[in-house]
Amino acid sequence: MAEAPPSNEVVIRTENLSKTYRNGAEQLLRMPGVTALSNLNMEVHRGEVFALIGPNGSGKTTTLKLLMGLIFPTSGEVEVFGSDPRTSVDVKRRIGFMPDGPYFYGHLNGYELLEFYANLLGMDRAATKQRVMELLEKLEMTTRAKQRVRTYSKGMLQRIGLAHALLQNPEIIFMDEPTSGLDPVGTADMHQMVRQMKSEGKTVFLCSHFLTEIEDLCDRVILLDRGRTLQYGDLNSLLAEPGKMRVRLSAVSAAARARLLPMGRPLAEDQAQGNLELVVADGTDTHNTISTANELGAHLDLVAPMRRTLEEVFMESIARQQADAPWQDGDRGLAHLVEREEG
Amino acid sequence: MMGAILAIAKATYRESIRQRVLLVVLLLGLLLIGVSIAFSSLSTGEEFRFIVDFGLTGFVMVGLGLACILGGFMIPGEIDRRIVMTVLTKPVSRFQYLFGKFLGAALVIFIVDVLMGIPFIAAYMWKHPQHQFNPVLPLALFCMFLQTVVLLGAAMLLSTFSSSSFTVIATGFVYVVGSVNKYVAQLAEHGDSRVQKLIFGVLAKIVPNFQNFDLRQALLAEMPVDWHHIAVDVVGYTILFLFVVLSVAWLFFSEREF
What we know:
The complex is a heterodimer of chains A (about 350) and B (about 260). Chain A has about 350 residues and is an alpha/beta fold. Chain A has 3 domains: about 10-225, 3-Layer(aba) Sandwich (Rossmann fold); about 240-305, Alpha-Beta Plaits (2-Layer Sandwich), CATH 3.30.70; about 310-340, no CATH class. Chain A is about 35% helix and about 30% strand. Chain A has helices at about 25-30, 60-65, 90-95, 110-120, 125-140, 155-165, 185-200, 210-215, 235-240, 255-260, 285-295, 310-325, 335-340; strands at about 10-20, 35-45, 50-55, 75-80, 95-100, 170-175, 205, 220-225, 230-235, 240-250, 265-270, 275-280, 300-305. The radius of gyration of chain A is 24 Å and the shape is globular. Chain B has about 260 residues and is mostly helical. The two termini of chain B are about 20 Å apart. Chains A and B meet through helix 3, strand 5 and helix 4 of A and helix 1 and helix 4 of B.
């Protein structure tokens, strides 16, 4: 599926966005409250798949709610299509929200549920029928259209949730944990839908715990922890390990292996097949490794920048943050990562 | 504008009529009317009065129950189940949501009143000395309906900033004070202390006078209808009261976070 390249048009922007929750007594006594989000600065471009990641309590849901105008900033600014989502009805015509749970009227059947939301959008009867049937078919829910929503499985709820989000053919789709609780087939289907939305030029804003899916689907990410931004930017740049290259060789003889091994850190090795993969420093070391491999008759299969997994980046960032400002109850248990890294 | 309000009202009505607790309230109301027929023969010579008194009290009790259940749990329930999030992320203003919920609940009250009204009117005509239909009767039931709608408005206002249990208790309090509003006003006038006068004075002003909605005496004495009273003290007051409480509810609801 051909994907439309993201444009530079900013569709979501936050500037020093902060949110502090205070209960009635805390408001009255001007007490500090709980800061869920602190000085968030980010921009999301049209047509990209953007992910908001972070552990529980990191401020993901708070950010999502602020972007949809369901809660209000304590300070800072939030703009969606250049308008305040709290006050602009036009913004809500252009966004779709897929919730992470069954936040729907359970007594309605699938068709009635979508019809209800279509009525909220001001769609007439004919347009409603056409759009609802189109979405039910697209999401393979036609046979379940007359079934009550309360009897739906998790996968069916996710599909009807997506159908509800897509009713007005939105330009931005906010998806909160879209694959949570789905089986592998459902997960693959949801990933396919995200790719399809991207190919249609829609902006997808994902909140997820599943880092492999983020790595697979997203263009850019923001990593939050305890309301603070730890990482933000292009996923490829974020995962790249600067100054290190991966060199994959085959037909490596025993003699060649003995010469090549000291030149880098072995990443994978299969002596019987004569395969060897090394991590070497970028520049002269890489050049020398390739020359030596050529001299000794080994085949060069791959030379690529070394790339970490998103999980590694995530764990390292969180652990570093914990080392800087430890959790008081110490319930994260990630300090060992920092120690290991430093050791 | 109206499309979203009507869609929310329709969904509210459809969800509410499925609630068993509302069915129980309706059955209790019908039971009260049944009991009034059965026991009216015990009060010889007063059967007609017994039916009217007992029946209208049934309407009041059912109305209070409906206002507490619908007003107290409808919006907090949707906030708890987070349905409100999926509605307010569509192009729906908070006013449209609030007014739609109100209209849906008012429709439920109307349907329940009609379902109770039919056997009540039949019982009235059966026990009437001349088995005659009194045109004041539907008007009295309409006033009962408006009284319930006023209570519903008060409950909805309370539910926008307080818990469901507080809303139910406070709505009951509004009903009790509203039913004795005339005496509360007298206490305000002849109170012992300045504080007492102030408290009762405020209560008498802000709580509706439900005695205005009660056409029991006109019904029993078969007096002509005082249309000026109906237009000003009942219908006019209901419109004004609902305008004020729903506006204040909207202000609170606009600041609510989900």
